[in-house]
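Project standup — Tuesday

K.O.: blocked on the structure for the chain from last sprint. Re-posting the sequence here as requested.
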Amino acid sequence: MRRVSLYDSMTRATRGFAPISPPRVGLYVCGLTPYAPAHVGHGRTFVIFDMVARALRRWGYRVFYVQNVTNLDDKLIARAAEADDDPLALAERHFLDFRRSMERLGVRSVNYYPFATDYVPEILDQVRALVDRGFAYVASDGSVYFEVAKFPRYGALSGQKVTALQPGARVEVDPRKRSPEDFVIWKAATPGEPSWESPWGPGRPGWHVEDTVMTGKLLGARYDLHGAGLDLIFPHHEAEIALSEAATGLAPMVNYWMHTGLVSMTGEKMSKSIGNVSSLEQAIDDFGPAVLRFYYLNAHYRSAVDFVPGKSLEECREAYARLALPATRIAELLERDGPDRAGDPVPAELADAAGELVEQLDSTLAEDFNSREAIAALFGWTRRLTELVPQLEHLDGAGLAQLDAPYAWARETLGLFEREGSTRTGAWARVVPLLLDARARARSRGDFAEADRIREELRALGIVVEDSSGSTRWRFADPS
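H.V.: unblocked you, prediction finished:
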């Protein structure tokens, strides 16, 4: 297994990754609350952790990846009431749409998507244990609250001090609580809402408790890696830690915490509750899944990303088209002629460089999953192929496969350059027009040097661009 390091949000330091029971890795990522369609911000977290799972598996770890579905909460109930709908049915529909988007994005690494309402008996067991151990109390209406003062480590992950929490600001004002920072783990039933019987009367689970029950049942009281967006550190992840460790007496609940940076829209956090969202499915429709994955991965996962509609993905589409040119050409040639195609062997120096680059890519990604630096190295490889191998069609199948090795690495770990049933016309029909559009825009603004550079880039890869009568066509160069 490869040595891996990652930034742990709890210790605020980069640490070597050491699973509890190697090579097994328990990975839990907070999933969707499907009260509305998923947006571009959601996609980033799930693509990032898809990359994490892919890479760990490549490096010899046996990853069991769980991503929960909060299919019942206050927002779902409110949204369903507005539409005169059943909240569980509404959640199911949005979740199925989300899964289709994930499939299109190539997010296929999750082993299990547990639904919160499937774990009500286990949730009741944990709530009962917390009451019995004195960490939770029953309010007058039958709701059950966790008493934060009984758990001194509360706030360790976020750095929040309980004494600094102001009622009505970061905590909910509720006369049933002993202290403002206490949080509900079992909510007394409200007429018209789904509910289950409990020792304290009919009710439903609170938000935080579902995660600790699922991880305890599926991954154990202590497991390896918990991931989510940065916005869930407080109060959600603080609550998870408190609930799990108070219920089991075992600490730490999880050995490593990974948090992705937030996606904002023109400077403000992208959020369904605010309404400043850009549809995930629409972004995939408009730009394609590869471009969106590239957008997410071409930044370090801990960095904040500002999404500008109509600009961010357009810029990424052009950059990705350039990056993918040699990979697409190699794929087309191998598909057309097969891996045993005749031709010249690849120069030994270039073959060695491909192998060395794959090792470099693994080492780069293993340092806190630095996909941005890995992609920068892939751009270097693309430039080298464009300059040194302008006639890829003259190489034999084995040579093409050697040159493709860095792109094959990216297909496996980053989910980029996936071959989607490419054909001689099909693969290039998806890539070349993107660069021709960029060239046309360059010409329209008078940047003829950039337009010529794009044309030469295509020519070096065997694509002839022909301008005539106000239109532009392209074709493959005749082999010489």
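K.O.: great, moving the ticket to review. The chain has 14 helices and 15 strands. The longest strand covers residues 223-229.
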